[in-house]
Amino acid sequence: MSTYDTMLDQAVVINSLRSEDIFGVIAELIDALVEAGALDAAKRDEAKQAVVRREMSASTVMPGEIALPHGRTDVVDRLVCAVGIHKDGFAAEAPDDQPTRVVILMLVPPAAGSEYIAFLGNVSRTLMDAERRAALVAATDRESVLAILRG
């Protein structure tokens, strides 16, 4: 099984993001990782800071209603992923001025190398397809979201 498939199998999926900015969405997704047991609650703030620090250095909001916030941190020993869907979208200063609806958050251990780059490339290619993005926004459960991301 590829790293991409493994990460999707372990991903936490939130179909109803509520925050109205990228930093609120990051906090929602980090909290979801804690709630699902994918991230130790004691490491929540450190993980959030790593992602926020990266986001402040260069925005991960992309055209096409997507954002890929991520951060390298030693609070995880493997790649950890959360998928968030915001049905209405939120303003995130996207290059195309469109609302952001699909957010894939990644926590990356410091030693991660090619598997992280491969995952990022696969998810980016998948999300560039407008029909898949629309299907993600319309999806109502975790299984549907993951099936769409798998293609």
Q: What do these coordinates show?
A:
Helices cover 45% and strands 20% of the residues. The chain is of the alpha/beta class and 151 residues long. It has one domain (3-150): Mannitol-specific EII, Chain A, CATH 3.40.930.10. Strands 1, 2, 3, 4, 5 and 6 form a six-stranded mixed β-sheet that branches. Helix 2 (22-35) runs antiparallel to helix 3. It starts with a helix and ends with a helix. The model has no long low-confidence stretch (mean pLDDT 92).
Output the radius of gyration: 14 Å
The computed structural class is: alpha/beta
Distance between the termini: 15 Å
- For the record, what is the CATH homologous superfamily label? Mannitol-specific EII, Chain A
Domain unit count: 1
Q: Average pLDDT across residues? A: 92
Main sheet summary:
6 strands, mixed
CATH topology label: Mannitol-specific EII, Chain A
Give the topology string: H per helix, E per strand. Answer: HEHHEEEEEHHH
* Form type: globular
Fold blueprint:
Elements: H1 3-10, E1 12-14, H2 22-35, H3 44-57, E2 61-62, E3 66-67, E4 70-72, E5 80-90, E6 100-108, H4 114-127, H5 130-138, H6 142-150
Parallel strand pairs: 1-5, 3-6, 4-6
Antiparallel strand pairs: 2-3, 5-6
Can you summarize this structure?
Helix content is 45%, strand content 20%.
